Amino acid sequence: MNGRVGAALAAVTLAAAAWADEAHIGMPLALAAQVETGDRHGHVVSVELSPHGAVVVVSRSVQALPVSPRFPLRLPADEPGGQYLQTPLDFVVPPGILRGIQGEQTALGVVEKVVSWISRQVVIDDQDSGPQDAVAVLGRRRGRCSGRANAAVGVLRALGLPARPVHGVLVGDREARWHRWGEVWLGPLGWVAFDPGASVGLVGVRYVPMGGASAEMTLAGVHLLHLEERGYAALPRREGIRVVPSGGATMKCRPPAGLGWVTALLLGPDGVRRVKGGDGLIEFRGLLPGRYRLAWEYHGRMEGVMDVVMSYRDVFVTLSAAGEGS
Questions:
Q1: CA nearest 212: which of 30, 27, 17?
Q2: Residue 255's domain is classified under what CATH number?
Q3: Which residues 6+ apart lie within 8 Å of 153 measured at CB?
Q4: Lowest mean pLDDT among 3-17, 186-200, 268-282
Q5: Are 193 and 152 in contact (CB under 8 A)?
Q6: Residues near 79 by Cβ (< 8 Å), separated by ≥ 6?
Q7: Are residues 64 and 161 in the same domain?
Q8: pLDDT band at residue 258, thresholds of 50, 70 and 90?
Q9: Which of 197, 200, 106 is nearest to 147 (CA)?
Q10: Which of 45, 123, 180, 290 could serve as 146's disulfide partner, Cβ 3.0–4.6 Å?
């Protein structure tokens, strides 16, 4: 980006961090040693030493998922299967789920409907003392977070979608707690996260995956140091669950004819800054629903700024030579 564009960005307050969402979480060293670090399908986790223990940094860019594969999902021999498709011999998919997915053509759509059904039909009860396996939880329609995650994993496996539970810590504003969510394999989309009652398509930066840690370990000393989660908060909700759309929408920007190179600058509701240039049609793809701030400049001059509201449909914007577009 050149200096003129940088100045233009500042002029219209299109400043944003490289990551839209990020959490810094203080954690005792013994517990931080159990954190699963690395890039977990866009959920990036690292651990840094601090004078008082460790700081866990969780980052992710919230954006639309690629176009979902069709359902039923075809699984090549080299893709996950085996243990990720195993269910008990007595496992039965609830009839309500089978009715709900009738006619659904995409694998991601099936995941959303399964997670939504469990979120509505299986009561969350942190004090539930019964078995937390999928069969037991679906039978009594009640369970802890681990039980609801296990139930979703079991149903997805029975439907031919490889799935697995994820054990970790969920950090709230005042306290942290042990938590369980899930991931489902969707072919070209890879492992896609979900959490019954919360989200489909990803989990937020408050989620810290743990390996080898026991729920008996104390979470004393785990606390938020810094939190930015505008991207997660901006996700559309369907039946109370935040859902990451598949494919997203496209904003097509047409500059005035004969002006030469035009730079378009876009700030999304998730805080992500996008910059593209061209001497013809400029396209921003994979956009989530919400209100965007669009600015454009050419010949070193800032020529216009406007707000654009995106839904699930593509939007065409004509950029004027001066002032607002249409």
A1: 30
A2: 2.60.40.1120
A3: 134, 163, 164, 165, 182, 184
A4: 3-17
A5: no
A6: 162, 185, 187
A7: yes
A8: confident
A9: 197
A10: 180
- Please indicate, yes or no, whether residues 235 and 309 belong to a single structural domain of this protein: no
pLDDT at 323: 53
Residue type, 41: H
Which residues, other chains included, contact 109 with Cβ-Cβ below 8 Å and sequence gap of 6+?
Answer: 68, 71, 101
Confidence of residue 198 (pLDDT cuts 50, 70, 90): very high
Look at residue 213 and tell me whether its pLDDT is greater than 80: no
Rounded distance between C-alpha atoms, residue 25 and residue 314, angstroms? 38
Q: Is 2 exposed, middle or buried (0-12, 13-18, 19+ CB in 10 A)?
A: exposed
Tokens, residue 269:
């509701």
Q: Which one, of 174, 191, 190, lies nearest residue 182 by Cα?
A: 191
Mean pLDDT of 176-205: 97
Inside any domain, residue 10: no
The whole-angstrom distance between residue 90's C-alpha and the CA centroid of its chain comes to: 33
Residue in the structure block whose two tokens are 């307050």 = 13
Alpha-carbon distances, residue 113 vs 85, 198, 221, 228, 267 (angstroms): 19, 13, 37, 29, 31
Domain total in the chain: 2
Cα 151 from Cα 118, distance rounded (Å): 8
Q: Does position 47 have pLDDT exceeding 50, yes or no?
A: yes
